[in-house]
Amino acid sequence: MHLKAIAALAAAAFFAIHGAHAQEAATADRCTSPWGAGDQIGAANRLTPEMARRAAGLVTTGKSYALSIETNDDTPAFGDRGIRIVVNQPDTIGDARLGPNGATYNDDFLAGHMGIGTQIDGLGHAGRDHVYYDCNKAADFAHSGGLSKLGIEHIPAIVTRGVLLDMTDYYGQDPVPGGTVFNRTEIEAQAKKQGVTIGEGDVVLFHTGWMKAHLADGAAFLAAEPGLGVDGGQYLVEQGVVAVGADNWGVEVSPGEPGTGAMPVHLLLLMQNGIYVMEYVKTDDLAADDVSEFMFVLGTPHITGLVQGIVTPVAIR
Q: What is the pLDDT of residues 17-67, one digit of tens each?
């Protein structure tokens, strides 16, 4: 074999081996948990009893807001997601009763995706090259019967300060047009306008008017959305937030920013920083009442191995 050809093959082999090592090292830099190996709860490690006490101090009127929508098989959903409910009457079909007092009951069976309607994305949801938060490889923990790590059953009760940023107020448009991206400049400006400062342990929600305007039209709702950009996501990472949510289907802007690839904000928040993502959050009532900060309360379904969960976050002011 010609010496140049041998050299070329040797070089190719060298770069194949060392390039793979370099790629693994780069992936590790992006996914290692700041709370140590084996971490299961990500940014929820920031939560403290003092944060819950401070959040309780924000309650002045006692008014509460359910930040979720009704969910059914007509709810616009990403990809092929859907949900079906079957109701029956076990042991009491037809004219049957359970006892001499005539007791009867209805039961239900739910079949569908957990990533539909108002939802929280767990840390096992978004990864790069099949590597997820804390550098867990999909082959090691993502099984057909559920996740053996990073399931949402590990998420503790989230009771902390919530911040709502009304981006319809910033842009002067309701809804904010699809494809509009907001980054740190826009976030800081709107926070300053509302008189709030984003801090460690906060849950930050964005109101864009997208859900209220388009939810009834699934095609329009899913075709695009205003949302968070990569720089905006990095800003929230720097503030030490626990979770980020919005009144749209994906939180981040769609179409995405040029050159950022697929779901870059999900990867930044979930995979790299353990920050939870909440979608389809019903923010219009908070925005209508000009609420900027509130007590945020969320409990997740403790069903072992879930990737995502249908939830009802609650705001109390």
A: 444 444 444 455 689 999 999 999 999 999 999 999 999 999 999 999 999
As its CATH architecture, domain 33-77+114-316 has 3-Layer(bba) Sandwich (3.50)
Helix (H) or strand (E) run with residue 161 in it: strand 158-166
Query: Contact at 8 Å (CB) between 244 and 43?
Result: no
Mean of per-residue pLDDT scores for the chain = 91
Residue 16, pLDDT > 80, answer no
Query: Where are the domains positioned within the chain?
Result: 33-77+114-316, 83-112
Task: Answer whether 0.85 is exceeded by the pTM.
Answer: yes
31: nearest Cα among 191, 150, 151, 185: 150
Burial 12-37 (b: 16+ CB within 10 A, else e): eeeeeeeeeeeeeeebeebbebebee
Three-state DSSP class for residue 165: strand
